[in-house]
Write a structure and sequence with these properties.
The complex is a heterodimer. Chain A is about 55% helix and about 10% strand. By secondary structure, chain A is α+β, with helices and mostly antiparallel strands. In chain A, about 50% of the residues are buried. The N and C termini of chain B lie far apart (about 65 Å). In chain B, α2 packs antiparallel against α3 and α7 packs antiparallel against α8. Chain B has 12 helices and 7 strands. Chain B has 3 domains: about 110 residues, Butyryl-Coa Dehydrogenase, subunit A, domain 1, CATH 1.10.540; about 110 residues, Butyryl-CoA Dehydrogenase, subunit A, domain 2 (Beta Barrel); about 140 residues, Up-down Bundle (Butyryl-CoA Dehydrogenase, subunit A, domain 3). Classes of the chains: A alpha+beta, B alpha+beta. At the A-B interface, α6, β9, α7, α8 and α10 of A face α1, α4, α7, α8 and α9 of B.
Chain lengths: ~325, ~375
């Protein structure tokens, strides 16, 4: 959606620059062209460009390892690198032993968080890779089964505990950025389709029922951009607040599913075909929602905390939130 | 040591510091403030307390913070006013009743009315001695506001107003009505409208309250029969009333959502006391909706503070705000239906019942939910008929 004047100008500039690159490059090449690793090479003080890159990546539905790198941004620790290369973080999926690695290639090292052990390197990620029996619509996320993996402790539990919160918060905010981009993509495509496709001698977008469906989708997306932008603006000044990152990720998942459903309804049966342009971003978003806490689990956790503590979280102060964006 | 006065209110001033100073003042003034924040089932008492609170806040400068000096304020922006609002709710306030209009009508007067008129009426609005209602809807003009018929005809230095307004919230307690009237022909539709401030004590004004489904009489029908209104009380130019109305509605639909979300938090926090484990997912869902309202409101406040012209994006705030209000009260009904539905025996329960019933119609006032969706579809998404 064209709402650049409503969102932070710096951030929109980074995002649009990334989108231009992602229109021509993917994988490590896109990261190099954007200077992605430079973003956090100096200690991850301002990760806004990284989140902007991920939003653009979602919108373009391109695959890079950016999300896996972002999770470990700022952990200036020589022990993490394998063969001089930065490893990718394998984000937990649900309550199982599975992790998902974004944009992984056969040469990439993978680091995961194992409670009780610390941050561990997966010795041979390809050997424990889930192999789907049928083609997948989107191969962005590689799923590893840690039950079958040989792992080596890189950062022991005693040290990992201090890093855990930041890794989870960055993963959640980064995944939310991608989900926001995917949401944009689906909404933009659905609105475009509705403006072209004619039934009963009129375009679909001329029917009030269609207009209101799309307006609700735009409203969902608007609230996500507002909360997301506040979290990202805050990330420039220090670590992301874990409760805010959790809320943003939960909202991103919920909004994505709502908008995807609207997009499918608006585009009709054609969108339920393998080849349709909606299929890949839809399945990518479904998978991203499962990373580092699904929206369903996070929403329940948010409710549980509010009930047991008797406090409805404010998540950000007006002083900081409004003035900084 | 934190100062006990509003302090520096410049645009770049530290809002967090301002909030901290106000909290200190609130804590030190508990004996005076707490009785004015308490909930009452008698609406007249609530209005009386709201007036007294405005007076107290202005006496100490806090009620003037964020308002321009030409309107009797101390300078600053809507962010300062919003901080005061939030802190009051944190201290246990259930809401400003008739002074909810302050954030809607006073900025409109400051923006469009003659400076002399602003100086004459806004300070008394700020300090609670005078309150305002807004006259938009008519018996034959609801969502189709541009078809309104209340007519104002120029006669010397006055306009003579005839017609009727309906659903004019808080008119029973109001001293003024900011009314949208027809000064041109019916065929001119919205181009034939003007905004004018009518003194409700004028001869020919009759306020008939409407007893609502929730037992209160906040709404009213206001009849105007040959009411003479000085032309100096025009708000904006003749024939430009629609623009003034759009400015006002962007406040009612948009920036007001900050105040409303503070009230929602108050109700939801209270409700958690009776919730069990089985409510966690629904509670989490409402908390998340509330976060969306808060974030969208913060963005709009920031834009307003920067002097941006608020446009159709205010429709987002109205849609989010009203959906959340209904979700919140649906949840409270589901976890403690008896409190909502059965005869109450405490002021808090009466108030919650009133609020529950009011929440059923929030998707109607200020432009219905369907009108807001159409605004988003046409003016944000660019979808067109035909």
């Amino acid at each position: 959606m064209a709402d650049g004047d409503l969102r932070p100008a710096d951030y929109v500039g980074f995002r649009d620059a990334a989108a231009a690159i992602l229109g021509r490059h993917s994988g490590a090449g896109a990261l190099d062209a954007f200077g992605f690793t430079d973003v956090y090479a100096d200690g991850a003080e301002d990760l806004r460009p990284a989140y902007a890159f991920l939003e653009a990546q979602g919108s373009c539905c391109v695959s890079t390892p950016a999300l896996g790198l972002l999770a470990l941004a700022g952990l200036d620790d020589d022990r993490l690198a394998t063969d001089g290369r930065s490893p990718l973080f394998g984000a937990p999926v649900g309550r199982s032993s599975l992790v998902a690695v974004p944009g992984m290639t056969p040469d990439d090292g993978v680091l995961v968080d194992r409670r009780g052990s610390g941050l561990v390197a997966v010795e041979d990620p390809s050997a424990v890779r889930r192999t789907p029996p049928a083609p997948v619509a989107d191969d962005y996320l590689t799923v590893l089964d840690l039950d079958r993996a040989e792992c080596r402790v890189v950062v022991p539990e005693g040290e990992a505990e201090a890093l855990r919160e930041g890794i989870v918060a960055r993963t959640r905010l980064g995944a939310a950025a991608e989900l926001l981009g995917l949401t944009d993509r689906l909404l933009r495509d659905a609105a475009g389709y509705a403006g072209q496709r004619a039934q009963f001698g009129r375009t679909l977008s001329s029917f009030q029922a269609m207009q209101h469906l799309l307006a609700w989708a735009a409203t969902e997306r608007h609230q996500l951009t507002c909360l997301f932008d506040i979290a990202v603006a805050g990330s420039a000044a220090g670590p992301v607040d874990p409760e805010l990152a959790r809320a943003v990720k939960a909202m991103a998942g919920r909004v994505f599913h709502a908008v995807a459903q609207t997009a499918i309804q608006v585009t009709g049966a054609i969108s339920f075909t393998w080849e349709h342009s909606l299929n890949r971003p839809h399945q990518r978003g479904m998978a991203l929602d499962q990373l580092a806490g699904s929206s369903a689990d996070l929403v329940a956790a948010i409710g549980r905390q509010a009930r047991t503590e008797g406090v409805v979280p404010e998540l950000f102060a007006l002083a900081a939130g409004a003035a900084d964006t | 040591m934190v100062a006990r006065v509003p302090g520096d209110l410049s645009r770049d001033a530290d809002l967090a510091g301002f909030a901290a100073r106000f909290r200190v003042w609130l804590a030190e003034s508990t004996a005076d403030v707490a009785p004015l924040l308490a909930e009452h089932s008698d609406y007249d008492v609530r209005v009386q307390n709201a007036r007294a609170l405005r007076r107290l806040l202005c006496e100490h400068g806090w009620g003037l913070a964020g308002w321009p000096e030409e309107a009797g304020g101390l300078g600053g922006s809507i962010l300062h006013r919003s901080v005061v609002t939030e802190e009051l709710f944190r201290a246990g306030w259930s809401g400003p009743t008739v002074f909810e209009h302050l954030e809607i009508i006073a900025p409109t007067l400051v923006e469009f009315a003659a400076p002399e008129f602003v100086q004459a009426v806004v300070p008394a609005f700020l300090d609670g001695s005078r309150s305002w209602s807004q006259g938009f809807s008519e018996p034959e003009a609801g969502s189709d506001l541009a078809s309104l018929r209340t007519r104002a005809v120029r006669d010397g230095d006055d306009f003579v107003v005839n017609g009727a307004k309906i659903w004019t919230t808080w008119s029973k307690w109001a001293h003024w009505c900011l009314a949208l009237v027809r000064t041109g022909s019916a065929e001119e539709r919205h181009r034939g409208l003007s905004m004018i401030a009518i003194d409700l004590a004028s001869p020919g004004v009759e306020v008939r309250t409407i007893r609502q489904a929730n037992g209160t009489d906040e709404l009213a029908q206001v009849h105007f029969t040959d009411v003479r209104v000085p032309a100096a009380q025009l708000v904006g130019e003749v024939g430009r009333g629609w623009n003034v109305a759009l400015y006002l509605l962007a406040r009612e639909r948009g920036t007001l959502s900050w105040l409303r979300h503070c009230a929602f938090r108050h109700w939801l926090t209270t409700g958690t006391e009776v919730m069990g484990e089985d409510s966690d997912r629904e509670l989490g869902s409402v908390v998340l909706q509330l976060a969306g309202v808060r974030a969208a409101a913060a963005r709009l406040l920031s834009r307003a503070a920067d002097g941006a012209q608020l446009g159709p994006e205010a429709a987002f705030n109205k849609l989010l705000m009203t959906r959340t209000e209904q979700s919140l009260f649906n949840l409270l009904r589901e976890v403690d239906g008896g409190r909502i539905a059965l005869p109450a025996d405490s002021p808090e329960d009466v108030l919650q019942q009133q609020e529950y019933l009011f929440s059923r119609i929030v998707t109607i006032y200020g432009g219905s939910q369907q009108m807001q969706l159409t605004t988003v579809a046409r003016h944000v998404l660019g979808l067109r008929d035909g």
